[in-house]
Protein 1
Amino acid sequence: MKSNPLRLLLMVLMLGLPVKPGLAQPVASPAILSEPGWSAWRPRAEFAAAQFSSGFSNSELGGFMDFEAICQQSIGLPNEEIDYWFRLSRLVTAIGTGRVEYGCWQTGEFVHTFSSTAVRTDLSEVNCLKVNTNASSGLVIRSEPSSRSAWLGGVRIGGRVTPSSFPALILNAEGRDWIAISNPREGWVSVGESPVGPINLSLCNS
């Protein structure tokens, strides 16, 4: 029996399964797309309500301008008429710094996307994170963002660390997110397995 693309899409939506752009059946809106470790896609009109800011370096600002220019060129519409969307990584809520991904949407798919650092605007600065790992020994401080790098010390459960900068410097390596810290000593600690493992840190005032 021949499959019906519309019926298949309806079944996927009812089951709550993620739907990716580029499938034979176009997706009406990116709001129904989902991916572990990320919030739902939201339209450009909700930028301000999401309480985040991005673009903290010349390279990120230049990259965003290039992204907009490519979207305009590909879609053939003025910038204000393009259907822009965004989503935030789970770390933005958990520790105040993470990633934002922007996308320009047309005919059922993202034509282009761009990712950069994002921070919560309801936090003037993040200078304290609390260790809440499931590991009974707490967190190990490493010389580099790698479990194979030198051991520099540790932080007990309930202890506090200070990110080395704001926005925090976060790198992904070995399937984990790592954050650079300056206190109790300079080094790196694991934020947690990405994209869906437990997060080892939380805001001190949360």
Protein 2
Amino acid sequence: MTVDRLLPFLVLVCSVGTGCSGGDAERESPGTQTAGLSASSPPSVTVVARDFAFDVADTLPAGWTTLDFENAGQEEHFAYFYRLPDDKTIDDLRTEALAPFGAAWYGYVTGEISREEAEDRFRTEIPAWFYDEVVSVGGAALTEPGERARVTIDLEPGTYVLECYVKRPDGTWHTELGMQRMVVVAPDERHTDATPPQPDATMTLSNYDIEIAGRVSAGSSVLEVRAVDRPDGLMPHDINLFRLDEGTGLPEIVEWMDWMEAEGFRAPAPGHSLGGMEHLSPDRAGYVHLNLEPGSYAWVSEGYGDRGMVREFTVP
């Protein structure tokens, strides 16, 4: 049994709320791109993150969909979508996967068991469907308060969970406070002809490397992100964009991105986050819309930065 799809379930309690579409997705900010869509472009859906809930339509169209993500909260948030197996419900997720994870996690953070023992319990006590049948389809990665991010992902019909599992300064997961909810993706013939955007560059995520073909430049551009395999660690591949301001230490960002450390993933982050692509199952792709100002940046993988999955770059 593999454990690389563990991260979606970093909670003791699955709080599934309702919401509505909201927010104005037309304003641009560094790290996002809101250029006009062509006739065959995917429909645009607004997702607003607050402390601690999501505003989003209860039902989304199937097919390629562009998510306009706004962080209207006071802490870092992201919007991660994953599809449940057809025969599983939120209640199954809560009782079969979340409860054993929570027991092992809090045994670890209270010192009752070691990190290695906790990871072993993740392997043995969480059911196989959790690892083998949950499909990670991406979403907008870590985004600073007040920033916006835009991504295009492929949504197949089914029942999805949308979540953010950043930790509060006291270590409480955002999911425990309500940032996990159900979204239904329904078939819609009107969007079957939608196609993803044409990328200016392509990023390939593998064990454990980042390969980039092409180049993103100042202003608007599109980056295709593709996962080609599955890590032997605890989660699928993702990638997060940070602006490296004066005084920002990349090693500190990499260390902070290890959620299994008690102090890891606690807001605020030690760098300015500008989105990216959330976790992708193998052989899936998503598209990050960028609007970069000149400066220094870094792509950082959550959990695998210390294995070399970091890329610094400069936008002239």
